[in-house]
Specification:
The protein is 53% helix and 17% strand. It is an alpha+beta fold. The protein has 2 domains: 79 residues, no CATH class; 38 residues, no CATH class. It has a two-stranded antiparallel sheet. A two-stranded antiparallel ribbon has the order 3-4. A hairpin with a 6-residue loop joins strand 1 and strand 2. The termini are far apart. 6% of the residues are buried.
């Protein structure tokens, strides 16, 4: 098994989240009495499980890493109530600014572009 998984991505937080959603949908199907909805939910849960397995066995580790990084960044932004995030219009660098300061001039740390946004 160790030789088979050599060079493959394995599991990460995104895979665990996908499997958790698939499990929740699978449990919901037990309470749904409409046959068409039950079939649709079952198909969605199996599709999510297959997607997680394919991600685990993928040899394109860079892409899987980038997907997981974006997933984690998304949830970090949701948890961060004290800051807003903007993309620099010139270089697309992510810039974090404090919330509640009104209109502020933001300077990009990478390209030194100045732009005005409401925080």
């Amino acid at each position: 098994m160790q030789r088979f998984m050599a060079g493959r991505y394995g599991t990460d937080k995104l895979n665990l989240a996908i499997l958790g959603v698939a499990l929740a949908i699978c449990l919901i199907t037990g309470f749904v009495k409409v046959a068409v909805a039950n079939l649709l939910l079952t198909a969605v849960s199996y599709g999510l499980m297959i997607w997680a397995i394919c991600r685990s066995f993928s040899r394109n580790t860079y892409k899987r890493y980038q997907e997981n990084r974006k997933f984690l960044q998304f949830f970090d932004r949701i948890k961060d109530r004290d800051h807003r995030y903007y993309d620099c219009p010139r270089c697309r660098q992510n810039v974090r600014v404090p919330r509640g300061k009104g209109k502020i001039a933001i300077t990009c740390p990478r390209c030194k572009e100045k732009f005005v946004r409401k925080s």
